[in-house]
Specification:
Elements (H helix, E strand, L loop, with lengths): L1 H7 L3 H14 L4 E3 L16 E4 L4 E3 L7 E6 L6 H12 L1 H6 L2 E7 L3 H11 L4 E4 L4 H5 L3 E4 L3 E4 L3 E4 L5 E5 L7 H19 L1
Parallel strand pairs: 4-5, 5-6
Antiparallel strand pairs: 1-7, 2-3, 2-6, 4-9, 7-8, 9-10
């Protein structure tokens, strides 16, 4: 029934408003959609192979030897997801200084990601998990109101050796970028001290 409702919104602003309301409800009525737990800190990050906003394929192994900020979010163009993406965008030079790669993941498709990136000038990669396989493997797939499956707003820092270095669950999009930067600095300082 929901897809039929969406088709009736022939005006992009109405469709965007409708999706924003739905995504806002995620925080109110969500249930786990998959029984797998999120990978524990110190364990290997689950592998993935996903397309970005241009249709290019990315695998976790492509980022071996690098720090990766892998953040999952519910829906393109919704208020919280836009706030989170734009704060990451605004701090992109700080992330680059730390040689960290940002990868955003939602269950939206490539075309949706392309529009989101272009509208907000996002200088990082968004990956389309349309099959929801990656969200399941990271334990972040949730069901909203028993109907829609979306990615929960979780962030993982993956260390250069491919292990989970940090995990935040159900993050507040406002201010989260600064929190991730501070943690990255701490993790990198600790890794340098061990050498």
């Amino acid at each position: 029934m929901r897809p039929t409702i969406l088709k009736t919104f022939r005006f992009p602003k109405l469709r965007t408003l409708y999706m924003a309301v739905l995504a806002s409800l995620v925080t109110l009525v969500v249930t786990p959609a998959f029984s797998a737990a999120a990978p524990a800190v110190g364990s290997a990050a689950p592998a993935f192979r996903l397309q970005d906003q241009t249709g290019a394929w990315h695998q976790l192994s492509d980022y071996s030897g690098k720090w990766v900020v892998l953040y999952f979010y519910p829906k393109d163009q919704t208020p919280g997801c836009t706030t989170q993406a734009c704060e990451l965008r605004d701090n992109i030079f700080a992330f680059r200084k730390l040689q960290a790669t940002i990868l955003g993941v939602s269950v939206d498709d490539v075309a949706s990601h392309k529009e989101f990136v272009e509208k907000h000038g996002l200088p990082f990669t968004l990956l389309a998990d349309s099959t929801k396989t990656t969200a399941k493997s990271y334990g972040v797939l949730v069901k909203m109101m028993g109907i829609f499956e979306l990615a929960q707003r979780d962030t993982f820092i993956i260390s250069p050796d491919g292990t989970i270095a940090q995990h935040w669950e159900n993050v507040d999009p406002k201010g989260h970028s600064a929190l991730v930067l501070a943690e990255l600095e701490k993790l990198q300082a600790s890794a340098a001290a061990k050498k």
